[in-house]
Amino acid sequence: MTVATQQLRLRRPDDWHVHLRDGAVLQSVVAHTARQFARAIVMPNLTPPVTTTAQAIAYQQRIMAALATHTDAPDFTALMTLYLTDKTPADEIAKAKESGVVHAVKLYPAGATTNSDAGVTDLLKHCGAVLEAMQKHNLPLLVHGEVTDPTIDVFDREAVFIDRVMLPLRKQFPNLKVVFEHITTKEGADYVATAEGPVAATITPQHLLYNRNAIFSGGLRPHWYCLPILKRELHREALLAAATSDSNRFFLGTDSAPHVKGQKEKDCGCAGCYSAYHAMELYAAAFESVGKLDRLEAFASLNGPAFYDLPVNDSFITLERTETMIPDVLDMANDQIVPLAAGESLNWRFVE
Ligand code: NCD
Ligand code: ZN
Q1: Distance CA 94, CA 107 (A)
Q2: How many structural domains is the chain composed of?
Q3: Is 72 known to be catalytic?
Q4: How far apart are CA 103 and CA 10, in angstroms?
Q5: Rounded Cα distance, 55 and 67, in Å
Q6: Which of 15, 138, 245, 336 fits a disulfide with 37 by CB distance 3.0 to 4.6 angstroms?
């Protein structure tokens, strides 16, 4: 008889892709992220977007001020990013690097997702000098890897992005660090596993746990709608294999993207799943489903710091095997938000 592991002690993890928003929502969500993670790469898609180092520093101060209002606020570092536009000046990159606050630059193809109107229209045409500076200063490019061409099926946009953007980009800037954010396909996982040079990927809990049937099971389910959209089961299996493999190129990025209930449940609902509240429980469930809990620490706590040239965290966390019900809703900013896997039960609980 094999006795199932009852407790998991891991080096404290980091979230390499999270949306913390601003104002009242920030106030709520930052405590969830800081409870589980020591650090997080904070996405810059505010309105207006965070495009300068000065704005990133100011945003980091708002994050820390919001966290400080919580009693027993844990130690937490917000690693900031800049939002790349067609007009980002190349000299902003040296400033960003020198600040010690900005750790990456995010590429949103214009129109690809929430608040991406100011995004890049043609990367290699408009951003060559910026990419050159990033390569020189060793500042990673974080990529929302989907083409926006309306003739390309929404389920194929990531695979097409590899051919149309990723390959030419990597060819022109072979030493630029690139993180293929929230990969959702076998093509994405295969590309990252085998590409030459400094390439890595983040993977969300929803893409490890669900396939696209979740969006349509028994009716239209807006809380499973995120971008890039959930894909077929074969892609989910490929992502789970990549996340739990021996490769150090895959690491944790929740893409936790809060939108209050009413903004999801409407005629044109927002894209994004909220997972900051229970991120490690979700990832533990995914890793356990393929008997790979032993790979969780590398994915959650070791591979990300290695890629970003940062030390691993000194402290540890514990996950306990306990049936944990995910609430139907969470209070948020005088409103409510539906967490990922609402109403489901998971086998693990984050203890501290
Ligand atoms: C994100 C958001 O809401 O900001 N939404 C999402 O579905 N992931 C944007 C993004 O990361 O694409
Ligand atoms: Zn995101």
Answers
A1: 18
A2: 1
A3: no
A4: 24
A5: 18
A6: 15
The boundaries of the domain holding residue 147 are 13-315
Burial of 52 by CB count in 10 Å (0-12 exposed, 13-18 middle, 19+ buried)? Answer: middle
Count of CB atoms situated within 10 Å of the CB of 136: 14
Q: Are 250 and 243 in contact (CB under 8 A)?
A: yes
SS3 at position 348:
strand
Q: Is residue 170 part of a domain?
A: yes
Q: What is the pLDDT of residues 75-128, one digit of tens each?
A: 999 999 999 999 999 999 999 999 999 999 999 999 877 778 789 999 999 999
Q: How far apart are CA 207 and CA 321, in angstroms?
A: 22
Strands of the chain (E only): list them: 7-11, 15-18, 39-42, 77-83, 102-107, 141-143, 178-180, 199-203, 250-252, 316-325, 330-332, 335-337, 345-350
Atom number, ligand 1, closest to the C-alpha of residue 272: 7
Q: List beta partners, residue 348.
A: 321
- Provide the pLDDT confidence category of residue 72 given band limits of 50, 70 and 90: confident
For the chain, the maximum distance between any two Cα atoms, rounded to a whole number of angstroms, is 63
Kindly state whether residue 116 falls inside one of the protein's structural domains.
Answer: yes
User: Could you tell me the pTM of the whole model?
Assistant: 0.97
Q: How do 345-350 and 335-337 pair as beta strands? A: unpaired
Q: In this structure, what CATH number is given to the domain that contains residue 24?
A: 3.20.20.140
Q: Is residue 23 part of a domain?
A: yes
Burial of residue 246 (CB within 10 Å: 0-12, 13-18, 19+) is exposed
Q: Choose, from 75, 156, 255, 331, the residue flagged as catalytic.
A: 255
Closest Cα to atom 5, ligand 1: which residue?
272
Residues with CB under 6 A from ligand 1: 19, 45, 113-114, 144, 226-227, 255, 257, 271-272
What confidence tens digit (pLDDT) does each residue in 294-334 have? 999 999 999 999 999 999 999 999 999 999 999 999 999 89
Residue 334 lies in a domain: no
